[in-house]
Prior knowledge:
Number of domains: 2
CATH superfamily of the largest domain: ABC transporter type 1, transmembrane domain
Shape: elongated
CATH topology of the largest domain: ABC transporter transmembrane region fold
Number of helices: 18
Largest sheet: 6 strands, mixed
Oligomer: single chain
Structural class: alpha/beta
CATH class of the largest domain: Mainly Alpha
Bound molecules: adenosine-5'-diphosphate, magnesium ion
Helix content: 55-70%
Amino acid sequence: MRPNWRIIRSLLPYLLEFRGRVALAVVCLVLAKVANVLVPVALKFLVDTLEERGEEVMLLVPLALVVGYGLLRFGATLFGELRDAVFARVAERAMRRASLEVFQHLHRLQLSFHLSRQTGALARDIERGTNGMSFLLRFMLFNIVPTVLEIAMVAVILFVAFSPGFVVTVIAAVVVYIAFSVVVTEWRTRFVREANTMDNRSNTRAVDSLLNYETVKYFNNEAYEAHRYDRDLEAWESARMKNRLSLAALNSGQALIIAGAITVMMAMAAIQVTSGDMSMGDLVMVNAYMIQLFMPLNVLGFVYREIRQALVDIERMFGLLGEEAGVQDHPDARRLDPDGGAVRFHHVDFSYQPDRPILRDVSFDIPAGAKVAVVGPSGAGKSTIARLLFRFYDVDAGAVTVNGQDVRDVTQDSLREAIGVVPQDTVLFNDTIRYNIAYGRPEASDDEVLQAARLADLDDFIARLPEGLETRVGERGLKVSGGEKQRIAIARVLLKDPPILVLDEATSSLDSASEQAILHALNTVARQRTTLAIAHRLSTVMDADRIVVLDQGRVVEQGEHGELLADDGVYAALWRQQQAVAGVDGVDGEDPA
Ligand SMILES: Nc1ncnc2c1ncn2[C@@H]1O[C@H](COP(=O)(O)OP(=O)(O)O)[C@@H](O)[C@H]1O
Ligand SMILES: [Mg+2]
């Protein structure tokens, strides 16, 4: 249990935010428990008063006791509810804070974390973690503490009023009960974990399968998917079964301990009533206490289980927070001063995994305002160059600079403000076209959004849609075509209006006609900007000030289109090849990979 104190401590700041409320809740808690413990006392005096019928009893006394009894019962519940009401805000706020913290952290994490992580499982970890937090806060403070308080008060009363046997029995029962619960719950925890893992796995599988709905249909693989899903469900079922069975064992054991203790206490009370050492009222009181203790003790078992579970869930969630962000701002990072946005790659080496170099000694310059193209076969490392400029990853050797400043020495915010990227694969938010375009600058006016749409050659498309800009694009933008998606991506970069433009095969999903239209638009915008254009189709970048030819992570040639053709090297060969294909198909080259 030790490392879990760390978790409990880490929750403290959330509590301290609402000192006043927490204090008020604690006062309510104590009042509720005092009222609760006094109920059996009132009952005892009532029974004893009624029993002394030998003398003249005034009706007033028992009536007063009955009223008092009723008030105490009501008070116990009322203060309990008040306590929960007062505390609710504290728990909900803590959940909100933690969810936000984890969410922000997830956005700070390296791209590779997200590429290897499954979103369905991630979302569930967060959900379970925050629920666990709320549970822990509420039950730790408002079930464990009050139950302990109640047991202590009852023990004191029993000690003062009766022979020591009663206190000893109660304390022994509580100790055995807690020990039993802890040991058995520890044993059960692995079943709970297993069930969680299986739950995550089947859920991830279902989400992934549904996201790939189209692919499943293309290959007629519904039965295969169902079979795989069912195999996970089967494992989940058996983990849940073990979970249930072990829970039944725990509950039965707990009930046995409680029943044993009650039997012993009642036997002692019966004997003492017979011998005249205890009154009828005393027996009723002992019985009432036992029933009253029975309930919170039962809850104690449940709460211990749930807290154990909550700690597991919170641990997972905070485990995400422990995940290191790969790229971090230097402690004294300054804001980037992009000026004209001159970009320089200086002897850059890079690999995603240590044993597989992707870029080797890559050097080239993009003077401010110039357009440089990077071309080469698929897998050569072109997109990787764009990612390094954007600082999704840090280089292994060499440096990437913008206007003379190493990208590692400036804040990520300021660097990314200065660069607009039209990525190779655009994924859209499941919202309207307007939302997705305006994402480039959320505060942009409607006119600016329309203007950007026009520049990206989207206006005809939008005009043909019954709902225009308000058309929803579906999950990941699946309801618009590849070319439309790319034009939306272009429009939102135009709206962002950065000094540096990165076009990663920005027109690859377009047919030749719309490509020409957009290239014209892009060239107009690119004119005042430093542009890195990544292309597979050479015809789209022949006008670049410089063309860098990349092959297997190395720069094999660079120069202007004319020079490179004259050199008759890799570029010239690629060019001839694509021209030939274009001649046959009437299109500019094949689709890029
Ligand atoms: N996140 C990643 N982890 C490991 N390898 C990667 C990752 N991203 C890309 N690669 C590999 O790096 C190489 C270059 O990728 P990329 O720069 O995307 O090529 P392209 O020139 O087609 O844009 C490819 O062989 C690819 O498999
Ligand atoms: Mg690429």
